[in-house]
Every structure is written in structure tokens, then in C-alpha cells.
Amino acid sequence: xxxxxxxxxxxxxxxxxxxxxxxxxxxxxxxxxxxxxxxxxxxxxxxxxxxxxxxxxxxxxxxxxxxxxxxxxxxxxxxxxxxxxxxxxxxxxxxxxxxxxxxxxxxxxxxxxxxxxxxxxxxxxxxxxxxxxxxxxxxxxxxxxxxx
Length: 148
Known about the structure:
Blueprint: H1 3-29, H2 35-40, E1 47-50, H3 60-70, E2 81-90, E3 93-103, E4 108-120, E5 123-133
Parallel strand pairs: 1-5
Antiparallel strand pairs: 2-3, 3-4, 4-5
């Protein structure tokens, strides 16, 4: 096998691994279980932006509190669309970008997602996460769904 083919095969395997980590967290997320992301997000070095949050969250401790209060056991979706994933990687870092669409029990989600992964001693973890609304000028932010 030529060196370039080996590199491409390794890049493809890494991309599949990163995408599977994210999708596993999303599968739990849309069942009201935030543990997938709480495990995926780095405990050492983490930051988070979301269009629904006023300022950046700068630690695993703070994101845990935010997530547990805001969505744990409250956010459900029968399905979601994970669109246009792309992984770009160098050595111990990888960036996953994708679009996420889901009609959930809380809001209809249409996000551009950016997940920056870093290889830590126990595997790949997200050190930065950004969830930005797709075309926010088209969204109605004054309407939320009632929680039953």
C-alpha cells in the first residue's frame, strides 16, 4: 500500500470514529439523556457557544450545570438529521462540522455545529463546541413549545 493511500485510510478511519462519537452522544441527547455529551466534553479544557446562551461557557462544570438545568430529561426527538459532516484533522486535534435538524419537545433545532476534538489520555474529547442557528434571520425566537 502506498503511503498516500495509508494516510487516506487513516484519515477516513478517524473521521468515522469522530462522527460515531458525536452521533452516539446525539442519540442519547434526543432521548432526554445528556450523559453522552457530558462524557464526550473534556473535563480538562472546555468551552461552549450556543445561540441561546448569552456568553461563552468556559468549563465542564459550568456546562454540566447548564445542561442539567436546561435539558436533562426534557429534550426529546423521535429522529434527527445529521447532515453534511466533515472532519478535518491534524495529529491530536480534529474539527467536526455538520448541520443538525430536529423537531424536539422544546424547540425546532436547525444548527450549524462545530466540535473541536482533542486526543486526551483516555480518547477523543470535545474541547470546544459551537451550536449556531442556521439563518437566524428566518427563525421566530419568540415561540417556544410547552413542556407537557
